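Hi support team,

I've been running sequence recovery on a batch of backbones for a student project. Most finish fine, but this one hangs at about 90% for roughly twenty minutes before it completes. I'm not sure whether the input is malformed or the queue is just slow. I've pasted the structure tokens below so you can try to reproduce it. Let me know if you need the job ID as well.

Thanks,
M.K.
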């Protein structure tokens, strides 16, 4: 029997502490009561499950899985499930809290949660991943539910895993419950526009920020770090709006062309190359990290946490950072970036398009009805634009960076709701 040990957080900043330091600043600006501060600083529920799985070679491996519900003050908790070797309880706690703030920023009626399993899906067969997903769902079937806690995809998971989750949960209830999870395949009640939703929201918030900063998109250059679902859609949609995407990257490295890359060509290359950009021909290959330091107008970190840190923040030349990933900037880098005049559209705003369309998917499932793609996009664009304006104006009012302003908007909403609901 083998057991996957938790990966040490190494010299990464602890993501929960990174979240807390911004939460603390925003709470002080709002003059938040101690009572509410203490309610919001701790997750409402943390579940750790141990999941034994029979691997294809007959051996049994035990995986550790998590589901953290940070808050259900605004409604049922919402948030993705991550399959990654780096999954760690403190990371899941931070990601769960970020979901609370994200849902509050875009004003949808959800609390925040996150789940994860420490595993390496790249090294597992689809049968092994299916058994793991079904066993995890079974272990958590009392936590999940359309009015309790609603999972979705995150790093390492997608529609396929959501279908297994929906099916396993439905079996436990003796009926089909498609609204228990979002990000499902279309035929199972997934929503049109959900796959591209996070990248689309990144595009909408990037354009809104460019308008404020008077950057003409037709003359702007952009680098996108990470070429998974979020990065590839953000690059595609920004290019469609006239922005010149000069660099993209994945774990194999960065690919740069000062005349602009053909994003469609890169996606096709990746799809035919085992999901990797390795060897992409029409660009100069750079070390992966170099993408962060290019002389571009817009930088979109769309990979993972803690890539912009106090050790490298000084080297960033972009005028605008639009955070497609959750937590890509460590809290210690915030002040360096702000001092250098770089504007950051923070994760809890910039990448909220995904959960917004997840909300639409849940609404459609509950109505037993399907919206057109046009309706989904129109409504999510409007929500993203309104949220951007609200955060931008709050930043001007409080004279703080947009990140702190986004926390102010979110915490204020959750705190006001808590006041009405009250506690025991
Ligand atoms: N995992 C995505 C996020 O971090 C989506 C969550 C959802 O749709 O519930 O925002």
């Amino acid at each position: 029997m083998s057991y996957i040990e938790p990966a040490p957080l190494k010299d990464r900043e602890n993501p929960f502490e990174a979240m807390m330091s911004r939460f603390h600043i925003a709470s002080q600006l709002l003059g938040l009561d101690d009572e509410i501060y203490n309610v919001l600083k701790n997750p409402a529920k943390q579940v750790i499950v141990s999941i034994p799985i029979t691997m294809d070679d007959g051996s049994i491996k035990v995986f550790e899985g998590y589901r953290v519900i940070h808050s259900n003050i605004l409604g049922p908790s919402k948030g993705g499930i991550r399959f990654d070797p780096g999954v760690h309880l403190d990371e899941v706690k931070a990601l769960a809290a970020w979901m609370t703030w994200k849902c509050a920023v875009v004003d949808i009626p959800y609390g925040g949660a996150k789940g994860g399993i420490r595993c390496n899906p790249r090294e597992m067969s689809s049968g092994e991943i299916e058994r793991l997903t079904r066993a995890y769902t079974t272990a958590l079937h009392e936590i999940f539910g359309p009015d309790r806690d609603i999972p979705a995809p995150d790093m390492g998971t997608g529609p396929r895993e959501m279908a297994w989750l929906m099916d396993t949960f439905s079996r436990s209830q003796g009926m089909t419950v498609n609204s228990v999870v979002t990000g499902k395949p279309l035929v199972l009640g997934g929503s049109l526009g959900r796959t591209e939703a996070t990248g689309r929201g990144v595009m909408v918030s990037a354009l809104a920020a460019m308008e404020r900063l008077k950057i003409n998109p037709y003359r702007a250059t952009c680098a996108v770090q990470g070429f998974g679902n979020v990065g590839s859609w953000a690059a595609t949609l920004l290019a469609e709006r006239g922005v010149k995407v000069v660099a993209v990257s994945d774990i194999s490295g960065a690919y740069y062309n000062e005349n602009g890359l053909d994003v469609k060509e890169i996606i096709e290359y990746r799809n035919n190359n085992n999901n990797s950009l390795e060897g992409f021909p029409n660009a100069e290959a750079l070390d992966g990290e170099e993408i962060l330091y290019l002389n571009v107008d817009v930088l979109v970190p769309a990979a993972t946490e803690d890539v912009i840190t106090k050790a490298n923040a000084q080297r960033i030349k972009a005028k605008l950072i639009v955070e497609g990933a959750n937590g890509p900037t460590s809290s210690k880098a915030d002040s360096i970036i702000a001092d250098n005049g770089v504007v950051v559209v923070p994760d809890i705003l910039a990448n909220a398009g995904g959960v917004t369309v997840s909300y639409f998917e849940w609404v459609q499932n509950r109505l037993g009805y399907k919206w057109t793609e046009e309706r989904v996009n129109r409504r999510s664009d409007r929500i993203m634009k309104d949220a951007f304006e609200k955060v931008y104006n709050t930043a001007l009012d409080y004279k703080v960076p947009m990140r702190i302003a986004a926390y102010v908007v979110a915490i204020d909403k959750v705190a006001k709701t808590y006041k009405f609901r009250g506690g025991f």
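--
Follow-up from support: It reproduced on our side and the slowdown came from queue contention, not your input. The chain has two domains: 1-40+195-351+394-424, 43-188. No action needed from you.
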